[in-house]
Write a structure and sequence with these properties.
This protein is mainly α. The chain has one domain (3-144): Butyryl-CoA Dehydrogenase, subunit A, domain 3 (Up-down Bundle). 63% of the residues lie in helices and 7% in strands. The chain contains 4 helices and 2 strands, in the order αββααα. It has helices spanning 8-26, 53-75, 87-108, 117-144, and strands at 30-34, 41-45. A two-stranded antiparallel ribbon has the order 1-2. The longest helix is centred in the C-terminal third of the chain and has 28 residues, at 117-144. The two termini are 29 Å apart. The model has no long low-confidence stretch (mean pLDDT 89).
Length: 145
């Protein structure tokens, strides 16, 4: 396994996608507090929990697909199908799908007072992931020219 085939941008993209996967699975996206007085309780839910946990699961799978696509492409295990004839284009579509699914989860449950730390971290990580997708496409296009 020749890790020298991975560029610095590849490592950053894979790392951001991995951190986003951990965020979606384990960090609290929603903080619900209910009750009154001494009977107050707080519940935290991750992105894969209700409400609409399926969007979190699809976002998680898309983020993991970015890592898998990047790894298989760089290690040259097999010829992979591409979108628009470009591997970077395929990864951009996967990052956009991640952003779409997590964005839909946000839109369907936009209660700013309920969002936990995991949501805000995922917002930053998703923007970084899509930015890295655009950067990879620009780099591949510039190299082809």
């Amino acid at each position: 396994m020749d890790l020298s085939k991975f560029s610095r941008d590849d490592w950053i993209m894979a790392g951001v996608a991995f951190l986003l996967a951990i965020d979606v699975l384990f960090l609290p996206w929603f903080d619900y507090t209910f009750g009154f007085g001494p009977f107050t309780r707080s519940v935290t839910l991750s992105a894969t929990d209700t409400p609409d946990g399926w969007l979190g699961v699809l976002g998680l799978l898309a983020a993991l697909a970015v890592i898998a696509d990047l790894t298989l492409d760089r290690l040259g295990a097999t010829e992979l199908p591409s979108i628009g004839g470009s591997r970077a284009g395929t990864r951009l579509v996967l990052t956009a799908a991640t952003a779409l699914f997590l964005g839909l989860k946000f839109i369907l449950h936009a209660h700013f007072s309920l969002f936990g730390f995991g949501f805000w971290a995922a917002l930053v990580l998703t923007v970084a992931l899509v930015t890295m997708g655009f950067r990879a496409l620009e780099t591949e296009t510039a190299a082809a020219s």
